[in-house]
Amino acid sequence: MLSRLATSTLSRLALTVPRTPLSRSLISLSVRTSSTLPPSSHRNLSSASAAPHYHDFPEPIGFEVVSPRPVESSNAFPSILITGDEELIAKGSFAEAQKAFIDPDPQAVSSLSEGMEAANVGIVAHFYMDVELQSVLQAVPNQKRVKISDSLVMGDAAVSMCRDGASAICVLGVDFMSESVKAIMTKNGYGHIPVYRADERKIGCSLAESAENLSYGAWLTKASQEKDTNPLHVIYINTSLETKALSTNIVPTVTCTSSNVLQTMLQSSLQIPELSIWYGPDTCMGYNLQTMFEKVLKHWSDEEIKQKLHQEHDRKSIQKLLNNLHVYPSGNCVVHHMFGKECVETVQSQYPDAFVSAHLEVPGEMFEIAMEASLDDKGVVGSTSDILNFITKKVEEAAVEIQKTGQQVGGEKKNLQFILGTEAGMVTSIVSNVKRVLASNPAAKDFVTCEIIFPVASDAVMVDSESEFGISPGVSGGEGCSTAGGCATCPFMKMNELDKVVDICQAIADGKSESLTGLHPPKRLEGKFINGRPAVEVGVDSILHMRHLMSEGKFSEDLVKEVVERSAANAN
Ligand code: SF4
Which segment of the chain is annotated as a signal peptide (predicted)? Predict the structure, then answer.
């Protein structure tokens, strides 16, 4: 049954719940005071230097009927309209800036593909790369050597490229991604193949860093001192290998992604007796999951839970899971935190018929309206892949409907609007999928358009030469910044630049790989040990537990034993 828990379980779950307002009280997003417990005394990471502490580590329906008039829509937020003729119409300077790079520069494509060929390089990139970079990557002829995906898939894609003979892998993302890709390659016997990042500077992540402070260690120490339950730390993948290793040393830890976090919680609570789950560091995602479980309990019978969620769960087991689910209260992503109240009010007043998407990381207000929309199949909550798949599916449904009804010239047109409740870089993959769907349904091309709406200020483009990242998030402006004070584009992801990737390929092809040492993933754990084991291995353990779940549909017996035995040892 667990295999049926596809990535969109959250939204499927919502589809059958009677439409009722969500309980706002369940989505308290105010950041609560961190634990004041002292840092863990269980930590035992040895190296030549003094034992480190956390702070030591740096750094459908929903169609808008518009015919016979031309397609129109609200201008409250910038948007990109994709027509059946594959034309892109941008509204607002933010969208213009995105559109400008969706059609890749042929010269840039040939420079990159020739460089990749000469250097025998494979590239794995996150969906949040900037539009220019993603568009060029999508146009590289040898797509076996390119993968744009969410973080879960990046490591597997790199291993496939290594099997296919790639001599080096370039990871376009943030540092915890290159670190994880390297670790997974090593685990699969490809540790000798070099991995490169696309910037010499540290490519950070506000969410990952929120798990690198004393309060996170203190929170986990509190978990380890649980007397009545067996604690398991479920850590979001957006954290460093170091955090994963140090956490594992305090409490048994499994990694999860937004695609499999629900499955992780449901399955672990079945396999591990008297389990308590300690979820971090993404506070919004944790609270959103608590809300989901509350909704299940409010609306579903035992039978519905078995049919729609998990055949081995019922109301009693979900209640127990919820009672023992702890969420770290102080971890936030600077990007997803932008989708606050003001943004939601505009969506509701200006785009009543739009489909609404929200990444699991976004604050409760946006999550709430996307969740509510999903009750009528007019929205989705989930991972980046879930959002991409939902939009693609909705355009496909509309195109197929038009094909069936055989619309005539002058007939009714449909403009499908989608509020993009995640990082704006997703638009490249969305445009690519929508164009593909419309091209393969020729009868639909005159009748279906798709509009991607960015919930940011319409004229929000401002380059800030004083800023380290060249942009300035905040109320006063910045590329894609909202009046709520956040930014729709991740400043860390945008540190990855096309020119740098071409330079890397050139250096490798010229036999000058030694000049690229500053581009290797972080090696902060190298030469360090935790309880006699290499710290890198300890950090990878939590990822391997996740991979076991994904391949077998359940956690290993070794993990179950470890959780129970360590809990018993701590209690004595
Ligand atoms: S969008 Fe940027 S800051 Fe937010 S979790 Fe991803 S990498 Fe980190």
Answer: none
Cis omega (within 30 of 0) on the bond before 68? yes
172 Cβ closer than 6 Å to some ligand 1 atom: no
pLDDT tens per residue across span 316-332: 999 999 999 999 999 98
d(CA 183, CA 197) in angstroms, rounded, equals: 14
Does residue 423 line the site of ligand 1, with CB under 6 A?
A: yes
What is d(CA 445, CA 435) in angstroms, rounded to the nearest whole number?
10
Q: Is 205 in the pocket of ligand 1 (CB under 6 A)?
A: yes
End-to-end CA distance of the chain: 37
Alpha-carbon distances, residue 503 vs 173, 490, 500, 510 (angstroms): 17, 23, 5, 10
Q: Is residue 451 classed as helix, strand or coil in its secondary structure?
A: strand
3-state helix/strand/coil string of 554-572: CCCHHHHHHHHHHHHHHHC
CA of 471 to the centre of ligand 1 (A): 15
Confidence grade of residue 408 (pLDDT, cut at 50, 70, 90)? low
What pLDDT score was predicted for residue 339? Answer: 67
C-alpha 33/C-alpha 329 separation (Å) is 7
Q: Which tokens sit at 430?
A: 């969305």
Q: Between the CA atoms of 432, 435, 440 and 445, what dihedral angle is there, to the nearest 10 degrees?
A: 170
Each residue's pLDDT tens digit, 527-566? 899 999 999 899 999 999 999 999 999 999 999 999 999 9
Strands 414-419 and 63-65: what pairing?
A: antiparallel
Cβ(490) to ligand 1 under 6 A?
yes
Q: Ligand 1 within 6 A of 392 CB?
A: no
Tell me the C-alpha distance between 136 and 115, whole Å: 13
Q: For residues 17 and 31, what is the distance between their CA atoms, to the nearest angstrom?
A: 29
Task: Name the pTM for this structure.
Answer: 0.75
User: At 147, phi and psi to the nearest 5?
Assistant: -140, 125
- Distance, C-alpha 69 to centroid of its chain: 38
> If residue 250 lies in a helix (H) or strand (E), which one and from where to where?
helix 241-250
Q: Residue 379: beta bridge partners?
A: 356
Least confidently predicted of 105-114, 362-371, 403-412, 446-455: 403-412
Strands (E), 174-243: 195-196, 230-236
